[in-house]
Amino acid sequence: MSHILVCGGAGYIGSHLVRHLLDRGHRVTVFDNLSTGHRAAIGSATLVEGDMLDPRALEQAFAHAPMDAVVHFAALSIVADSVRDPERYRRNNVDGTVNLVRAMRQAGVRRLVFSSSAAVYGHASGEWINEDAQRRPINPYGASKAMAEDVLAEACRDGGMAVAALRYFNAAGAHPSGVIGESHQPETHLIPNVLRVSAGVDTGPVQIFGRDYPTADGTCIRDYVHVDDLADAHRCALEWLEDRDGFYPFNLGSGQGFSVLEVLEAACRVTGRKIRSVDAPRRSGDPHRLVASITRARQVLGWQPRYSDLDTLIDTAWGWHRAPRF
Questions:
Q1: What is the pTM of this model?
Q2: Which DSSP string corresponds to 270-309?
Q3: Which CATH class is domain 190-222+256-288+310-321?
Q4: Among 3, 57, 62, 207, who pairs with 27 as Cys (CB 3.0-4.6 Å)?
């Protein structure tokens, strides 16, 4: 049994990892300022309220009990907000990571799994994006994740740290129990917005941003990965890092892409309901296709997505959106 500190563990992906670790007998402490997370999402884990920009609060989290490793989810993550206030994103996502590295070194903790993003790639070309693709973020959010990766890579070069940077594509789905799921305000992701319309939470219609992309049906293609598969990847990374030093990036996705219209059709099929949609202009900066190569995560970490087929993603998310707990 290990004791894991999960920074940002009351959020969407973090809370699924917390449940995943607790189910496997690990001790978990969550460090979260609850600005976007939910106290009810962390189950029996210990909560230490605090902010990544407060070094003293981080020191207190590590002083709570000896830690074996850290998982770092704590970040601002809405692209449009990052464009409006890039300095806030740099400060929170980059300076907060610097503070965490210092606190880990002071506490003698060396293993870290970092929640990164495919946004570090920007407009990457090719059918599948691998970890060797050049990082060219096109918005301040992606840039802040790339800068945080650089902070962690430098900490590894200085010696004594082992970091896995997990670059998510599109997280989706919910815990099969329906106890926890995706609950953002505002909600900016396609699948929950489609299901909120289907559930009558939003009046709709669903907006389809652009139908003139170079894809089979003219809408953007994205790679969706189930949140429980992401949780399992974090566990695999924690175990793999145990006897290593250095910085290691891994893509996490399903390895297949679905268009906006395919997502909408699947949601109608799974829910048994018609979902109204309306065409809208393209959004600036939207690439036509973003799909992960997950070969490295499969071969190196031994990770295999199990729940990331489109119908399972939507079915578990639908279970949550019909009766959200928070």
A1: 0.95
A2: HHTS---EEEEPPPTT--SEE-B--HHIIIII----SS-S
A3: alpha beta
A4: 3
